[in-house]
Hints:
Elements: H1 2-11, H2 13-16, E1 21-24, E2 27-30, E3 35-37, E4 39-42, E5 49-58, E6 63-67, E7 79-81, E8 91-93, E9 102-110, E10 114-116, E11 121-126, E12 129-133, E13 136-138, E14 142-148, E15 157-161, E16 164-165, E17 170-172, E18 179-185, E19 188-192, E20 196-210, E21 214-216, E22 221-230, E23 238-242, E24 245-249, E25 252-255, E26 264-276, E27 279-283, E28 287-303, E29 313-322, E30 327-333, E31 342-346, E32 349-352, E33 361-369, E34 372-375, E35 379-381, H3 392-422, E36 429-434, E37 445-451, H4 477-481, H5 502-512
Parallel strand pairs: 2-11, 13-20, 21-28
Antiparallel strand pairs: 1-4, 3-8, 5-6, 5-9, 7-8, 9-10, 9-11, 12-14, 14-17, 15-16, 15-18, 18-19, 18-20, 20-22, 22-25, 23-24, 23-26, 26-27, 26-28, 28-29, 29-32, 30-31, 30-33, 33-34, 33-35, 36-37
Amino acid sequence: MESLILIILVIFPGVQGGDWGVTSGDQCALRGSSVIIDCQYDYPSGRWVTSVGWSKLLPALGRPGHFILSQLPLNSAYFNYVGNYWSDCRLRINNVQHDDEGAYLFNFVTTINRWTSKRAARLSVRELTTVVEPSTVTEGGEVRLSCVSGCSTPVNILWFRDRQPVPQPGFQATREDAGRYYCAVQGQETVRSAPVALNVQYAPRKVTLSMTPSVIKGGAVTFSCSSDANPPVPQSGYSLHKDGHLISSGQNHTVSNIQPPHSGLYSCLAWNNISRSGISRINSTQLHLDVLYPPENISISMDPLDVVEGGSMNLSCSSAANPAAHSYTWFRQSAPSLSSMLRVGSGPLLTLPSVDASHTGLYLCTARNQLGENNSTEVMLTMRKEYQGEQTVPVLAGIGVCVFVALLLALLLFRLKQRTRAEKKPTVFDFRLSERGSSSSGPSDSVYANIQPNIRQALPSPPPAAQEITPLSQRSHHEQEAPMSYEDDVTYATVTIKPINSTHHMNSRSRAGDDDDSVIYASLA
């Protein structure tokens, strides 16, 4: 019996005796987590604990409210008493919320008396807080994540972005890193902070230009620009370009009356004041606009422009079309009175190898593609006849050439003959006047003049003026030795011989005797 009492005293320390009292500590808990309020109690010996309970002070009421543990299941999802009935009075609170924050009191009832703790255990509820520095960053910048709990109790923290784990709290931001970040307690991932957004700004990417690639002439086409950018590209940040030249500003551009000159390469330029690798304006891929239209500006050219009967003629038909004309048809109207046209050929080239009267008339061609057909303007083909007289022209030309050559040869022969004569030895004419009975010491004959024909030209008629004949013996020595000149100047001499009266002559001869012999007035050698 004594040993049984000893065992009871060891198991139930309060039975052996002590003072009334409850010892508890303050706690800090994160919202959503579970917390245990530590508590120990004691009572005098000889008493048995019949019931325990916790109560929370209600500030609005100014008095405590009680949680009757007997009315709570042992494994309650919210409050659990994890103490015992002799010394341990701990209380566990699951999924702590801000409403659970406050002061808690423990009380117990024994077989003789009841006791309530004099000092309340205070519970503080705090939040996990995520801090993202900086919250807005340009792509390529550094980002640092930190988690603040508000409780001194250290906990292991995990990081998540849009419910996906984040390996490191520090990183170099890319556009894919933009999102909502939060921290959580390891092992209690439901205990998490409120999410905080990270804004990563970047230059436009995936700049796209959309339009209808093919449109019929006269229709409408709308160009639309789009891009992925942060911040988004404003309306004024888009511009439309054609073949490298600015067309308009804005995200959309409409051309209501499309024409062939609108065909070309189009691109869209986007800008949001954020640069990428030093480039702030990002271009889209180029799109080709193809304006379709039926044949137009159809014309006919003739080669040659003038044709004679029997000659050949080529008629060419050309047009502007998109797509290009795939067929050409030729028509002829032989008479103005005929209203219908006669089909005479096909293809862009019509050849008439031998033109005759049946080929003359108005010609036109029709060009056709997938969008329609159109006619050219009419051209008139005329023919002129070849005259017989025209055939004598080459003959007359040949005769004229022959006559010209013959005259040229005759002139050359005449000049050659003259030169041959001129090269012969010059002829000297001496006119001598001889006197009979002259002294033996003087010359028997006197040369009064030398006549030298010009070797270069024929001797012209002598001038009417007469010159005095000077005997050659009376000339100066210088004049006698002067060399013969072949200059173009000609020296003329005129000898006037007057007849002597026969009576006077006879008288003179009788008076003179032997001294009046006949005189040789001129001698021609």
